[in-house]
Amino acid sequence: MKSLFTAATGMSAQQMRIENIANNLANLSTSGFKKSRVNFEDLLYQQMPAGSATQGCNRVSTLQSGSGVRMGSLVKEFSMGDISNTNNTYDFAIAGRGFFVLQMPDGSESFTRNGQFGLNSEGELVTQAGYLVSPGIEIPRDAQTITVTEDGIIQAIYRGDPDPIALGQLQVVDFMNPSGLQALGGNLFIATPESGPSIIMDQQDGLRVKQGFLEASNVNVAEELVNMIVAQRSFEMTSKAVEASDQMMQTVNALKR
């Protein structure tokens, strides 16, 4: 019975939706995390034999039978999360579009919205996982104060010298289609043909780096809970279709008794 297989695709789709919601809620406290949204699409349609029609006249509609549903795409939403003040010298948040650039151990580049940085044993600016923040800025040990301007220029103030000295500039890039980035885990993304190449940002592009702030996850708890309820009810209704098909098959099988 075709309805069993059609309903099964609906149950599988809603299970994927619940899994995505669970991942969003699990990362509610992950700095810089971006939630995902599942999009569905209907499956192939089967053309059914049509009845007789008056010669020379067109029918009002065609007869087609659907085959169910499947996941069409899983889209990352890069809307900005709330920014909180941490007063940490090496915490940074991007107010608006943009990504920090990281240098991976193999020499490739990855990108992140999580600006929770620190220093390694050589005084270089790194992520919590130890990835070097591009373009490889080294903080002097004898620097008394480290400040960062909104355009990402890192400056050091030394004892007895009130004039700041520029150490380098944080590289911030953007993409034509951020939703096309591939997530690696650990708040890291890499460019893909769908995202397009990285574009270096400046203040004319709206670049604003905030020192002493961190961007929170953009997951909306109330929205995710509502989506979970809708997915659960959709799963239940689809399972009712499976039960109804099973009861029809039982009725047919009982006819031979």
Key attributes of the depicted protein:
257 residues, alpha+beta, four-stranded antiparallel beta sheet, 23% helix
Written overview of the protein:
The mean pLDDT is 88. The chain has helices at residues 2-26, 221-254; strands at 36-42, 46-47, 64-65, 69-76, 83-85, 91-94, 99-103, 109-112, 115-119, 125-127, 132-133, 143-148, 153-158, 161-169, 172-174, 182-185, 188-190, 199-200, 209-211, 213-215. A hairpin with a 2-residue loop joins strand 13 (153-158) and strand 14. Helix 1 (2-26) runs antiparallel to helix 2 (221-254). The chain contains two helices and 20 strands.
Helix content: 10-25%
How many helix segments? 2
How would you state the average pLDDT, rounded? 88
> What string, H for helix and E for strand, traces the elements in order?
HEEEEEEEEEEEEEEEEEEEEH
Largest sheet: 5 strands, antiparallel
Q: Measured on Cα atoms, how large is the radius of gyration? A: 27 Å
The class by helix and strand makeup works out as: alpha+beta
Low-confidence stretches: none
Instruction: Give the N-to-C terminal Cα separation.
Output: 21 Å
The beta-strand count equals 20
What is the gist of this entry?
The protein contains two helices and 20 strands. It has helices at residues 2-26, 221-254; strands at residues 36-42, 46-47, 64-65, 69-76, 83-85, 91-94, 99-103, 109-112, 115-119, 125-127, 132-133, 143-148, 153-158, 161-169, 172-174, 182-185, 188-190, 199-200, 209-211, 213-215. β9 and β10 (125-127) form a beta hairpin.
Describe the secondary-structure layout.
Blueprint: H1 2-26, E1 36-42, E2 46-47, E3 64-65, E4 69-76, E5 83-85, E6 91-94, E7 99-103, E8 109-112, E9 115-119, E10 125-127, E11 132-133, E12 143-148, E13 153-158, E14 161-169, E15 172-174, E16 182-185, E17 188-190, E18 199-200, E19 209-211, E20 213-215, H2 221-254
Helix pairs in contact: 1-2
